[in-house]
Amino acid sequence: MRFDRKKLFDGYRLKFGGLDQQQVDGLNRLVSGIEQDPHVRDIRWAAYMLATAYHETAHTMQPIHEYGTRQYFINRYGGQTRKGKELGNDTPEEGYHYAGKGDVQLTGEANYEKAEAALRREYPNVIAVWEERTGKTFDLTVGDQPNDAADPQNAMDPEISYAIMSYGMRSGMFTGKKLSDYIDDVECDYKAARKIINGTDKNILIAGYAKNFEEVLRAAKTSAANAHNLPSDKPDTDPAASDPGRSETATLAADPIVETKTTEVVKTGDTTLAVEKTEPKGDAPDVEPTKVTKNGPLANWLFSGGTLTALGTAAWAYITGNASTVAVAVICVTVLIALIIFRGAITDAIRMQVAADPEKKNVT
């Protein structure tokens, strides 16, 4: 599969709103990964992968680290806890080392070990490029090499993160459920597909994202005959993000989808964190997410200003094209205003004329 980048970015705006450069780079990275992935040939799989990454990365489309402090992860995922044991963590410290990272929040030593072996087997080219780029031996786990305490951080690498997402969602590595369980020639159940990652958490919301991404990808998909026109060896850029002459406001004519939860990406030291600000109230209906205007009062003010400007321009064009008619109208209006202003004096004069009696000499 190959995708026309201009159509891709334009379609994204229509469904989700404006793009900043971080999102442009992230979306391009993920789509490039899909284009080059021999294991992903169903456009619906691609749509659900993008929807998952969109949600799990707090809409940045970049790998992120799960929110929390070292002690938080030790208390939550450490080997002394039930959850930590389920994830394959043996010591309290491993709760911190193997906290959620990447496009789909890979968590737990057992999953890191599986991902490491799978990527060497299924994505050798990705591993080779990574090793050449970094000068290191690829590894995701701690304790099998000298000075390897930071190796789990390799899950944050953009290309490695994509490969982990692809393998995990296709193989069922994360929860035992996989893409082919819900999306095949017979059915496409985006809502139930959330079980691949995290049960039913936000499943309706993410299903809405997947439907939108599917429409965007289908509109941007290009034929094999045109594939040579699309660059694959260097990042594509969004025309709106790279062209200073195009205003981002203009790209927001379509209303973006806003979920009921707001997530903010913050930095703590060297770690990127995803912070949830609000939670939705109750379950949302199983329909397309509501669309709202992104800029609120500012957008309304700009719209009103544009409307007034247009009306003023139209009025001036009429005046200059019908000068004589306008002049007569101005004279008539002026006379009418004068009559209104002096109506009292005129009325008194008429009344006095009618009541005048020459015999009584009351007329001057």
List the helices and strands and how they pair.
Elements: E1 2-3, H1 5-16, H2 21-36, H3 43-56, E2 64-66, H4 70-77, H5 82-86, H6 94-97, E3 101-102, H7 109-122, H8 124-134, H9 158-171, H10 203-220, E4 221-222, H11 239-242, E5 263-268, E6 271-276, H12 297-321, H13 323-341, H14 343-355
Parallel strand pairs: 2-6
Antiparallel strand pairs: 1-4, 2-3, 5-6
Helix pairs in contact: 1-10, 2-9, 3-10, 7-9
Describe the structure.
The structure is a single chain. The chain is mainly alpha-helical and 364 residues long. It has 14 helices and 6 strands. It folds into 2 domains: 2-290, Lysozyme, CATH 1.10.530; 298-360. Helix content is 49%, strand content 6%. Strands 3-2-6-5 form a 4-stranded mixed β-sheet. It has a two-stranded antiparallel ribbon with strand order 1-4. The radius of gyration is 33 Å and the shape is elongated.
